[in-house]
Amino acid sequence: MAAALMATVVGCSSGGDVEATGEGGSPFEGETIDFVVPFDPGGGYDTYTRLIAPYLGECLGAEVVVLNEPGAGSLLATGRTATSAPDGLRIQIMNMPGVLSSQIAEAEGVRFDLSEFSWIGRIAAPPEVVLVQPSGEYQSFEDLMAATEEVQFVATGPGASDYINASVLAQAYGIPFKLTTGFSGSQEATNAVVAGNADVHVMPFDTVLPVITSDQAKAAAVVDDELPEYMTEAPLIGQFPPPGDGGQELLDSLMNLSAAGRAVAAPPGVPEEELTALREGFSCAMENQELLDELAEQERPVNFLGGKETADLVQQVLDSPKEFQEAVKNSF
After folding, report:
1. Can you give the pTM of this predicted structure?
2. Which of 42, 147, 326, 329 is surrounded by the fewest CB atoms within 10 Å?
3. What is the C-alpha to C-alpha distance for residues 74 and 212, in angstroms, rounded to an integer?
4. Are 281 and 26 in contact (CB under 8 A)?
């Protein structure tokens, strides 16, 4: 079991406009809530959690403790959350494309059913970007669609989101492709495109934004209906209708998977009163202007979605068409 890095964040006054949930106070008043990050410290999920924690603590009148529980690509912590007591005292930020894909593929290490979790809300949903080399053979999405030889996509490994993105996009558009894996991380894979040693990497825009703004790489398409905040001008995927039957359905399912984004959940079976308090407290925190300003300083996008809506989106992805589920399974 990986050692957990613990950082305590006390719900004290931050000078913001947060208020405790409900007139009668929160059922979590004076309690300690573990806010679990299923990855090592320092990444995007960790950053979001540590910034949100004090505001959530104040909204709930609770002490929020951030715990890092890395392992098995987030499946380890997610499995623990699935079997934790349904009292609302353990919540977790989740890499939704990763865990949803793992459940659909029935991957090894999946010991949970995401449809049963108590969903609190979604923080952000950074859309995917089709990243290419500005002076490479494929400088636009039209070039990729017109390819007659194998396009070299890169990914960190089977089952990873960039592997799934590449597989599904190529299938939706009929792009001949090969996937190169074995990189130590997503940055190394992106660097292969920057250096001209590969053609395409498909990653969340906020992860690859630095290489785009520095003109080291180019966004051939943003896989969304609109440009996200902080994103420079780039074509939207809707400008390129997939050819043939089934392509649009695959693309829509991939966009739903991406839209699940970075969400927060408690274990299955949390009682209605506690779950309502968590949802209201989370909404209270995510509406706090001081928190939004802190996130903006780090160019961390916010696309807040309530708990019920997040639960509906999760179920929609789990009920994706058979062709999409098969494409995801083939990516593992």
Report:
1. 0.84
2. 42
3. 28
4. yes
